[in-house]
Design brief:
By secondary structure, the protein is α/β, with parallel strands linked by helices. 51% of the residues lie in helices and 19% in strands. The strands form two sheets. Strands 1, 2, 4, 6, 8, 9, 11 and 12 form an eight-stranded mixed beta sheet that branches. The longest helix has 39 residues. The radius of gyration is 31 Å and the shape is elongated. This is Polymer-forming protein.
Length: 253
């Protein structure tokens, strides 16, 4: 009975070796020790080899394999006379074992059936969508900060001064205000009459968020050397870049 176990270091080693040999176009058979094939292969009865690695073909084992069997995009058939003392890794195929075959418990089989392919496709599309949304939001934030500073000009100075004086208090007010807005939006959205108020409230919050982000960007842009002589829009763009880097880089965000 084949038992699927957790991948250990030997599985990882076999995977790396197989990946490297996947770029080779030659077939190697060295002194009955290691077999590397790009086509279906058979290990005859009473033959003993060290490792068997097959890429793009099936493997049929009658003899003895002392270390590892790695199959990519192919099936493995283990006959009753076979003796496999090492690990077995089959990716993109299936394993068929006859009764009486001597096989260790270190077996891993990854069969890419339709359900698995669909799951991988959906997961890939989801990850790609999240990545694209993050890029779009980052670009939008990077553009909005200097644009807001350019449009408001000196009217944004009180917000920047408030960031200077009480940054912790500003964060606290923003956090509590966000919770209140969420709670109020839920209550108002229950009725049809309250939906327009919810939309207006969300737009108002978005406006304050953009202005606050521009003020914070200016403050962060002034941290850089010789930034006091630069225009406010350049400071905002520089600070917005730092904010975006802090959000997207795993080290900071």
């Amino acid at each position: 009975m084949i038992v699927l176990l957790k991948i250990n270091q030997r599985f990882l080693l076999c995977f790396i070796v197989s990946f490297l040999f996947s770029f080779s176009s030659t077939t190697v058979f060295a002194a009955n020790e290691d077999v590397f094939m790009h086509q279906s292969t058979v290990i005859p009865d009473k033959q003993s080899v060290e490792n068997v690695i097959v890429i793009g073909g099936d493997a049929t084992i009658y003899g003895t394999v002392r270390e590892a069997i790695v199959i990519f995009n192919g099936d493995l058939t283990v006959k009753k006379s076979a003796k496999i003392e090492g690990i077995i890794l089959v990716i993109g195929g299936s394993i068929h074992q006859e009764p009486g075959a001597h096989v260790t418990d270190n077996v891993l089989s990854l069969a890419f059936d339709n359900a698995t392919k669909n799951s991988l496709f959906i997961a890939s599309i989801t990850l790609l969508s999240i990545w694209l949304v993050r890029i779009a939001c980052s670009l939008l934030l990077f553009i909005l900060s200097p644009l807001t500073v350019y449009l408001l000009k000196h009217r944004i100075d009180p917000f920047v001064a408030y960031v200077y004086r009480s940054p912790i208090q500003l964060l606290t007010i923003g956090f509590i205000g966000s919770l209140l807005v969420i709670a109020l939006s839920i209550l108002l959205s229950i009725t049809m009459i309250g939906i327009p108020f919810v939309i207006f409230l969300l737009l108002l919050v978005l406006l304050f968020f953009i202005v606050g982000l521009a003020a914070v960007s200016i403050r962060m842009g002034e941290w850089l050397p010789k930034s006091t002589e630069r225009p406010a829009t350049i400071k905002a763009a520089t600070g917005a870049g730092l904010v975006i880097a802090g959000i997207n880089l795993p080290l900071f965000g």
